[in-house]
Amino acid sequence: MVSEYLKQNTAEFHDAAEKLFSSHKIFSKTFTLEDYKKIISTNYLMLLHSEDKIFTSLSDKFSEKLHLDKRVKLPLIEKDLSSLDLKNQKETQHLEFANEHEALGAMYVIEGSTLGGNVIAKQLSKTEGFDDVTFNFFGCYQENTGMMWKNFKEVLDSEVTPENYNKVLSGAKKLYTFLLNVN
To answer: Residue 93 — left, alpha, or beta (φ > 0 → left; ψ -120 to 50 → alpha)?
Structure first.
């Protein structure tokens, strides 16, 4: 199953992202508004540079099965930027996906961030200093987070054949590398 293959082969990137964003501070309730601004700004730049490219790289089959119209996140994170008094930016770096499989790998990173983001939003909403924070991006699927993640994994696992696993992994690594080096 490609979802397990991705999880195993991107673990070091996932861990590096958690370290970059000081994720350990979220559960110790020492995560600050400045920490949150950093995580939102970085995820915004990731989405700005990748979301449209991912969606346009996917065939109609994937668009339909993945319900892409319900997975658009850039406008949501732009609302978070605005509420945090952060500025929208323009694309500054070149990021391309060579094929549909790389786009699926990149989408794995984004969908994973919303899965984890749901936990982040719940935890931070109980943290002092976050009373007025809206979690548009991290709370994008609300009570449907688990269902959306499950749908994504099921489509990946049923549609991606083993000979394409490395292409999907390449896309995931490409977006993780971008995320870790964007600032």
So the answer is: beta
Give the Cα separation of 117 and 126 in Å (integer): 14
Tell me which long-range contacts 66-70 makes (C-beta under 8 A, separation of at least 24).
66/107, 66/151, 66/152, 66/155, 67/148, 67/151, 70/148
Backbone angles phi, psi at 41, to 5 degrees: -60, -45
> What mean pLDDT do residues 127-147 have?
92
* 72 contacts 47 by C-beta, under 8 angstroms: no
Determine the Cα–Cα distance for residues 134 and 125; give it in Å rounded to an integer.
Answer: 9
pLDDT in tens, 112-121: 998 888 889 9
Q: Is the model's pTM score more than 0.85?
A: yes
